[in-house]
Write a structure and sequence with these properties.
two-stranded antiparallel sheet; 284 residues; 7 strands; three-stranded mixed sheet; Glutaredoxin; single chain; 12 helices; mainly alpha
């Protein structure tokens, strides 16, 4: 238990001193790192809590009485349940979940011989927050070109002429292209093959324009579970956000336009005259 308490203290301290040093797949880490209460970061409180927990454990070990340690541990678990529910409902944070896991280890090891209603309650809250991280990290849309956190997200299908038209407009604007990520939505086996070979060309260093120009030349019998999976994830993401066809252009305008760029703004105002549904026969 002392090991997990010290590990929790060190982890909280590292998160406070070097917030970008630990792997985090969620924006929640960056957001929660800026939260303060009485001008102190939550990681300040976490580090302080684990120090007190370690001290009370050593005191209890010497006195053969863990009364203070028990109370402090239960108090921490109750607070932690509230924080886990908050993350599950709003914004998950993998770093925070790690801290919760360390605290959970201490709780379950220390009270391993006791039946406590708090055990299933904490477990439920923890699994709920863990699922929220999974949903955020795994079920978010996946690009085939560009970064997943790019300010401009373009969802396209290779067999959709309106998609290729919009992609062509973006390609003509070098500034906008540098801000854009392309998310594939395959409608059929032919689209899967095209997207697979398109991805291989991009990975081999082919310029985006050349790869796009050759997109509809690709054919063959190759298949890709990867392309099918990310296509399904992207399609599910669009459906959750109320879309039923491609192309879809999503952006945070303030992160893209800057000072100038009236031609960039024109592209955002432009709506495709036609589009394609998600199924093979739903293309105008």
């Amino acid at each position: 238990m002392l090991f997990f308490s010290v590990a929790g203290f060190i982890y909280c301290l590292i998160n406070f001193l070097w917030p970008d040093s630990l792997l985090c797949s969620s924006q929640g880490c960056k957001i929660y790192a800026k939260f303060t209460f009485l001008r102190l970061s939550y990681y300040h409180y976490g580090a302080g809590y684990f120090i007190f927990l370690s001290s009370f454990y050593l005191y209890g070990y010497r006195k053969n009485s863990f009364k203070f340690f028990d109370r402090l541990l239960v108090f921490g678990i109750v607070i932690n349940c509230g924080l886990l529910i908050w993350q599950a409902l709003f914004m998950p944070c993998p770093s925070c979940i790690t801290v919760a896991a360390l605290l959970g280890f201490i709780f379950f090891i220390h009270f391993h011989n006791k039946q406590m209603p708090l055990k299933p309650v904490w477990t439920f809250c923890f699994l709920l927050a863990l699922f929220s991280i999974f949903k955020t990290g795994i079920l978010n849309p996946k690009p085939i070109y560009g970064s997943s956190d790019a300010p401009v997200k373009l969802f396209i299908s290779p067999g959709c002429s309106a998609c290729l038209e919009m992609l062509g407009d973006i390609q003509q604007n070098t500034y906008l292209l540098s801000k854009t990520a392309i998310f594939p939505v395959a409608k059929n086996n032919s689209d899967v093959i095209k997207l697979l070979k398109f991805r291989k060309m991009i990975e081999n260093g082919t310029e985006l324009k050349d790869a796009v120009d050759r997109l509809n030349d690709f054919s063959g019998s190759d298949d890709s579970l990867f392309i099918r999976t990310i296509s399904w994830i992207n399609k599910a993401y669009l459906v959750r956000n109320g879309y039923s066809q491609v192309p879809v252009l999503m952006t945070t305008i303030s992160n893209v336009l800057g000072e100038e760029k009236t031609d960039t703004w024109d592209i955002f105002k432009k709506s495709p005259s036609k589009g394609c549904g998600f199924e093979e026969k739903e293309c105008e």
